[in-house]
Specification:
The protein is of the alpha/beta class. The protein has three domains: 158 residues, Rossmann fold; 119 residues, Arc Repressor Mutant, subunit A; 107 residues, 3-Layer(aba) Sandwich (Trna Endonuclease, Chain: A, domain 1). The chain is 43% helix and 18% strand. Strands 9-10-11-12-14-13 form a six-stranded mixed sheet. A five-stranded parallel sheet has the order 2-3-4-1-5, with helices on both faces. The protein has a three-stranded antiparallel sheet with strand order 6-8-7.
Length: 436
């Protein structure tokens, strides 16, 4: 029976699959012909991982690979719901029966849906016959889970919803440093305003009305809630999980105190221990619903003892918030938090007498301090600059920057020259070794 299912799925791939056109994602070039490790494409559901795999497959076909050399299997397919590790053999047998050979390239989409997936990948990789690419919707695959399961046989690529650069490409908006100096940059600013509120999920960007966009985010929310957390971790007290998720939707950009939230639950006559709440925060991170940054400290114990600063993985999730107040400053800060995660920077927040939004650590030392505010005014300049300067001086950081919505200038504060730069321009800035 399972062999018949496999033959049907593979026949559909070989005979009927037409790879859809899609926006080319930003990524380091991958030489799949000489790939020695398993390539893991990791990111939230609906962020474009499958389309990125199609991009890699199309590149293979354009170069030299034949269609009969590529196997693609989506483990989210309902027909594979009861598959186990040992059933993968049936997939390879079916492929051989239909093509007369083994695949050179294997693409397993949403591999975490397959029980015993790591054992399967180890076995296939040890045969040295296949070039293997996998995708997964669990952040644990970026480090702890996959590194222990595959023991050095892998490399990862983080794929999030569209960056602002990719968003502009999706909207067919070109940009250059010259355009930044002309009135035409108004088009870029208009696009950034939409990106700031709607986020970067590809399917959401195709919708016109707020109602349609909200409906899509509601479906993403439910998938994370039920499939990625409730089912995966066998959670019984789903009302606590829902309370945590709703709270994160409303307080993103602020500190999440486990102790304070425990008291909040008690005030609502809901039981919930600190351990349970802490576990649920980790689950939400692993499901790519939130980012949680620790307070900077050289002491691991102090980092754990302090509240974490919580951000949404995509600004568009704020469509679901029950707090309807518009806080553009928090949206701006959330965009920066996502981009630092996209760049896989080791990021913390700073809090002592004053506060600084982001501390970027490279190697063993903090290397950069970033403060975010919507606009610099005479009323807030003292507070915002004090936080940035205190972080720089306390942690002996040389580089600091103030990111705003639209200001580009320098301010002097207590012997420090602080550059102000619009967030949209920071997102589009030319990086080492590339043209704008």
């Amino acid at each position: 029976m399972k062999l018949d299912v496999c033959k049907k799925i593979i026949a559909e791939w070989l005979e009927e699959q037409v790879l859809p056109a899609a926006i080319r994602r930003e990524a380091e070039p991958v030489d799949l012909e000489n790939l020695s490790e398993i390539l893991a494409i990791v990111g939230p559901r609906r962020s474009g991982k499958t389309f990125f795999m199609y991009q890699l497959i199309r590149d293979l076909w354009d170069r030299s690979a034949k269609k009969e050399e590529v196997l693609f299997v989506d483990f989210d397919d309902y027909r594979l719901e009861n598959f186990k590790a040992e059933d993968v053999e049936a997939i390879l047998v079916a492929f051989h029966q239909l093509t007369g050979g083994y695949p050179r390239f294997i693409f397993f989409d949403e591999v975490q849906r397959l029980p015993g997936w790591s054992r399967v990948l180890r076995t296939l990789h040890n045969q040295r016959r296949y070039r293997i690419v996998i995708s997964g919707s669990n952040a644990g695959l970026l480090s702890r889970e996959i590194s222990s399961e595959l023991r050095g046989r892998w490399r990862d690529h983080l794929l999030l919803p569209f960056s602002f650069r990719e968003y502009l490409r999706f909207k067919n908006i070109s940009y250059s440093e010259k355009i930044f100096l002309t009135p035409a940059r108004g088009t870029i600013l208009q696009a950034f305003d939409t990106y700031l509120t709607d986020g970067g999920f590809p399917e959401v960007l195709k919708k016109e009305s707020r109602a349609e966009k909200r409906q899509l985010f509601q479906s993403y929310y439910k998938t994370i809630f039920y499939r990625d957390i409730l089912e995966r971790y066998n959670i019984k007290a789903k009302y606590i999980l829902e309370a945590v998720m709703t709270y994160c939707l409303n307080i993103h950009g602020d500190l999440f105190s486990v102790s304070a939230f425990e008291k909040y639950l008690k005030g609502q006559d809901l039981p919930g221990s600190k351990k349970t709440i802490s576990n649920y925060i980790r689950y939400l991170e692993e499901a790519f619903f939130i980012l949680a940054y620790e307070k900077f400290s050289y002491s691991p114990r102090k980092r754990v003892m302090n509240p974490e600063k919580v951000y949404l993985l995509d600004n568009g999730f704020s469509f679901l918030a029950t707090d309807f107040s518009e806080n553009k400053g928090k949206w701006l800060e959330n965009i920066v938090a996502i981009e630092l995660f996209r760049r896989q920077e080791e990021t913390y927040y700073y809090k002592n007498r004053q506060e600084c939004d982001f501390i970027v650590k490279r190697g063993t030392k903090p290397a950069m301090a970033i403060q975010v505010c919507w606009e610099m005014t005479p009323k807030n300049q003292e507070r915002e600059c004090r936080g940035l300067v205190e972080a720089k001086e306390s942690l002996k950081i040389r580089e600091g920057i103030m990111l705003t919505y639209g200001e580009e200038r320098e301010v002097e504060f207590r012997g420090h020259s602080i550059p102000l730069l619009p967030v949209w321009k920071w997102l589009l800035a030319k990086r080492k070794g590339e043209d704008l």
